[in-house]
């Protein structure tokens, strides 16, 4: 395989890694927004008294929901979101590591290509 084709393949792989990283960062941002929203809901729930009524929107209808069940649902959602954030962060680190390795590979190929071109053009006077 020629150095040019190796460079092209490595560049394509690097671009794929960039797209994967971009998607993972977007997912992380969405999860952060959901986390913030659910933390706000939990904070509001903390201010409720036992006599307050909680309603849940189901389609176009508000349905009364048990306070303990609603609080439990929010806590469960928070745990899930936090575990998803950890998973996505690990994925981001992995992709960044692969990206750095691919970047090094590209630099090595470019260096080898430049050396090859210098040999072909011959020594300069």
UniProtKB/TrEMBL annotation:
Which CDD domains does this UniProt record tie to the protein? Prefoldin_6
Which terms does the record give in the GO molecular function aspect? protein-folding chaperone binding; unfolded protein binding
Q: Which GO terms describe its biological process?
A: chaperone-mediated protein complex assembly; protein folding
Q: Say which domain of life the source belongs to.
A: Eukaryota
Listed Pfam families: Prefoldin_2 (PF01920)
Q: Which residues form a coiled coil?
A: 14-44, 71-105
Identify the SUPFAM superfamilies for this entry: Prefoldin
Alphabetized UniProt keyword annotations: Chaperone, Coiled coil
Taken from the UniProt entry, a GO cellular component term is: prefoldin complex
InterPro entries on file: PFD_beta-like (IPR002777), Prefoldin (IPR009053)
Q: Which family does it belong to?
A: Belongs to the prefoldin subunit beta family.
Q: What's the protein name?
A: Prefoldin subunit 6
- What is the source species? Crepidotus variabilis
């Amino acid at each position: 395989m020629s150095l040019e084709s190796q460079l092209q393949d490595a560049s394509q792989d690097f671009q794929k890694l960039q797209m994967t990283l971009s998607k993972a960062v977007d997912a992380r941002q969405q999860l952060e927004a959901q986390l913030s929203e659910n933390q706000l809901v939990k904070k509001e729930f903390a201010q409720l008294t036992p006599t307050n009524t909680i309603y849940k929107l189901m389609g176009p209808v508000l349905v009364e929901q048990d306070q303990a069940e609603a609080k439990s649902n929010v806590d469960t959602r928070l745990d899930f979101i936090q575990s998803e954030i950890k998973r996505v962060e690990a994925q981001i680190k992995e992709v960044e590591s692969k990206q750095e390795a691919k970047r090094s590979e590209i630099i090595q190929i470019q260096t080898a290509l430049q050396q090859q071109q210098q040999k072909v053009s011959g020594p300069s006077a």
